[in-house]
Amino acid sequence: MKNKIIFLLFILSYTVYSQNCNIGNETATGQFTTASISSNVLVGIKVNLTEEGTLRSLNVIGNIAGSGIKMALYDDNSGVPNDLITSTSANTLKNGINSFVVTPKLLPAGDYWIMAIYETKGNNTKVNFSASGNTAYFKNIDYNDDLPNNASDFSSFTGQDYLYYLGVDCGNTLSNQNFKFKKVVLYPNPSNEYIQVLNLDKKANFSIINLKGQEILKGNIKDEKISIKNLKPGLYFIKIDNKKNLKFIKT
């Protein structure tokens, strides 16, 4: 009983400091008006992340529903889009906020390029045509093709802005009196088959503990994935290198 109490106090002693740091045009202003967006054109804008954060989603505010859409995020090289960081699968656009979840990824502070391509031409999202000084980059590609891994041959134009934004959690540190470190993320969570441990900077040992404080599984993290298919459904804690403690749900 004493060991169980110590374990629960240890878990509760940790605090997760995280805040919503969505980056980009999360809301429409009067400057954004309905416009016909071409199909088969990957186009996007630069956004600035002022502090390190964990990317959760790529987002667009849709104006009408129905078109297929893919989104992508590129890093920045001296003010122009560079290498592909992540992208979404094909989705169907809806009117209002469209949030397309991606595998969580830790992003350093800096500039990024968020882009979208539509399957059908139409009033897919609103555009600000008076964004003087704002530069957008684009590339004509077939909607069904893979998105480019590099943007070195993209073209640019000025004066337009789009309702695209990044879903980011910032201030991701875990701390208590003795430890302070970057937040480790479990994905997917809840899960049935496996959990993936993201943001580890080295190989690590793990142990999984149930709500009774019993260690029921331990081992080494290989390729950041841990099989949980043999666990009973429920809530569990995972301890990584005897320091990082996270909870997950087995479905």
TrEMBL record:
Name of the protein in question: Secretion system C-terminal sorting domain-containing protein
Organism superkingdom: Bacteria
Signal peptide, first to last residue: 1-18
Sequence ranges assigned to domain Secretion system C-terminal sorting in this UniProt record: 186-246
Keyword tags: Signal
Coiled-coil zones: none
